[in-house]
Every structure is written in C-alpha cells, then in structure tokens.
Amino acid sequence: xxxxxxxxxxxxxxxxxxxxxxxxxxxxxxxxxxxxxxxxxxxxxxxxxxxxxxxxxxxxxxxxxxxxxxxxxxxxxxxxxxxxxxxxxxxxxxxxxxxxxxxxxxxxxxxxxxxxxxxxxxxxxxxxxxxxxxxxxxxxxxxxxxxxxxxxxxxxxxxxxxxxxxxxxxxxxxxxxxxxxxxxxxxx
Length: 188
Ligand code: ADP
Prior knowledge:
A hairpin with a 3-residue loop joins strand 1 and strand 2 (9-14). The protein is globular and about 45 Å long. The chain contains 5 helices and 7 strands, in the order βββααββαβαβα. It has 188 residues and is of the alpha/beta class. Adenosine-5'-diphosphate (ADP) is lined by residues 16-18, 28, 38-40, 42, 88, 124-131, 163, 165-166, 169.
C-alpha cells in the first residue's frame, strides 16, 4: 500500500528500496563506509562493485562520513543512478543529540540531491534497525525533517519516497505522516 500527499509529492510505501524506480536511493551507511548488514548490505549486493569502489575512494580521501552527513556515489547495477550514503546516529537514550543528527541525515541527503539535480529520491528508515532508534520517534523526526527542508529550500527533488521494509515500520510512518502534516494544516 502507498500513502501519498500531493504537496509535496511525498509517498510512503512498503518494500525493498533496492528496487525503487528513482534517480537516487539513500543508504543507511556506517561512518567507515564499509559494507554492513541491513539495508546497506542489500544496496551493496544489488549495486555491485562500482559502489564498493566509490566508497573506498571516499574513505581514502576523506576518512569516511561523519554521523549526520551524507556522501554520493554512482548506483552501479541499481536502477537508481546514484546512492546517497548517510550515517544515522546510534540510539543512546535520546540525550546525545540523536534527533538533530537524524534530522540532519535527511536534510543533508536532500541537499546533496538538489546539488546533483536529482528529481526523485527514496529513503529507508534510517537508524531504526541495527542502530536501535525507536521507530515512533524516528518516523516523526524523518517526516518533519523532510517537511522543513522543503519549506526552507527552493530547490528539492520533486518526488520524495520512503520505502519501508516491514509492515510495522510502514504503519508507524503512516501515523507520523498524519501527525506531522495535519499538525501543520491546523496550526497555520
Ligand atoms: P541502521 O544501522 O541505520 O539502523 P539498518 O539497515 O539496520 O540501518 O535498518 C534501517 C531500516 O532499513 C530498518 O527498518 C530495516 O528493516 C530496513 N531495511 C533493511 N533492508 C531493507 C531494504 N532492502 N529496503 C528497505 N529497507 C530495508
């Protein structure tokens, strides 16, 4: 099932992000940009060597990618032309800057997308797997970050999609979508 808003063109769908028919998919990477499990492993397996090599170059050149930041590589064998790798925070109880760092992941990814004229982008649920960020909280942070970016920037991808792997994650994002977007309608 896909849930959609028209303004912006933001949709939530359940599925496998490696299959997304978009210009760029976002990877929940680690700061070393070394292949991991979860969505990172799935993207690297589907995208192949070109992604590995590009991550290796960034690692050698810049030492990796700090938490809350994002880097871009080609998409290799994926349909997506690019992969934007962003590093989410590990959940440490919520008082270590986790919400700001998580919001930054979405906003830095959108900024990199805009800089590369990317028209459509798909996000997974960053930090809510191995990194342990509670899903109800992460969903609100994610959708608020996207909404704020669109409000504050003239240039953003036209189409923004969240591809959520499991039913429970999809449901939490649907609840957050109504909360975040309904709230803005009633307070303006
Ligand atoms: P993190 O380390 O940032 O927590 P994970 O990869 O462990 O990242 O998990 C992030 C989210 O990605 C989880 O909700 C997980 O179920 C989901 N996920 C795993 N594989 C895929 C996939 N192929 N497509 C979309 N989401 C995926």
